[in-house]
Amino acid sequence: MAKSATKKAKGPSADPNAGKTPLVEMKDISIAFGGIKAVDHASCDLYPGEVVGLLGHNGAGKSTLIKILSGAYPRDSGQIFVDGQEATVANPRDAKGYGIETIYQTLALADNVDAAANLYLGRELLTRWGTLDDAAMEAETRKVMGRLNPNFQRFKDPVKQLSGGQRQSVAIARAIHFNARILIMDEPTAALGPQETEQVGELIHQLKADGIGIFLISHDIHDVFDLADRVTVMKNGAIVGSARTEDVTKDEVLGMIILGKCPDGAIPGPGALAA
């Protein structure tokens, strides 16, 4: 449960990831559009079984930074490392090759077909006669959904008939079935009710237990404190700072988002307001 917004952190706690190799690390990333620096020398990292919340106002640069990691945008400068080795991510196919999958807010599901058809969309299994192997695809879908969301039973229904939380389950299952190790989730609880939001939270905890690292983009600071191990705040394309959620309060994070002020419990970045 998230702590009170009035508790004052005295300084960063010991880093449980000290000495470990990040699952993914972005170093000194920059990109400009028409002379405007959308991301300005930004660095962040993610460890296995960890959720890092990326926060900031619209236009802060968080979505652009993540689109660079997903291969949607080519960076102007900077480096990306996966398991400590420099990675070439020039397009979404490259990203998928490194186990980087993105679940956008729209989910990108085909509404008129069922869960199995969505899981294998574009990567369908075929019988030896060259026809769709619907039985094999459904069997594999049941396996992955059984691990991810054992309560899911609506395998035959078109996904347009599913609830928001069930649709999220299908989108996440599609990502992890093809060996995602780094998952980017863009506003996963937007437009969901409390019960469905709780369901998505349970899915995220299951992914963490499986060692998957998650970048969580959200405008909901309460969700981030409930789900994330760390937060990284951006403002005007630069990193204001990063902190473990146990070391900062919600009010302090709001101060980072709005003012660019880095509290004692956070590690300041180049975008932090000078003292």
Would you write up a description of this structure?
With 275 residues, the chain is α/β, with parallel strands linked by helices. The chain folds into two domains: 20-99 and 181-239, P-loop containing nucleotide triphosphate hydrolases (Rossmann fold); 108-177, no CATH class. The chain is built from eight helices and eleven strands. The chain has helices spanning 62-69, 92-97, 115-119, 134-148, 164-177, 194-209, 221-227, 250-259, and strands at 24-33, 36-46, 51-55, 77-82, 85-86, 100-103, 182-186, 213-217, 230-235, 238-244, 267-268. It has a seven-stranded mixed β-sheet, with helices on both faces. α4 (134-148) packs across α5 and α5 (164-177) packs parallel to α6 (194-209). It is globular and about 65 Å long. The protein starts with 23 loop residues before the first strand and ends in a 7-residue tail after the last strand.
Please render the helix and strand layout as text:
Elements: E1 24-33, E2 36-46, E3 51-55, H1 62-69, E4 77-82, E5 85-86, H2 92-97, E6 100-103, H3 115-119, H4 134-148, H5 164-177, E7 182-186, H6 194-209, E8 213-217, H7 221-227, E9 230-235, E10 238-244, H8 250-259, E11 267-268
Parallel strand pairs: 3-8, 3-9, 6-7, 7-8
Antiparallel strand pairs: 1-2, 1-4, 4-5, 9-10, 10-11
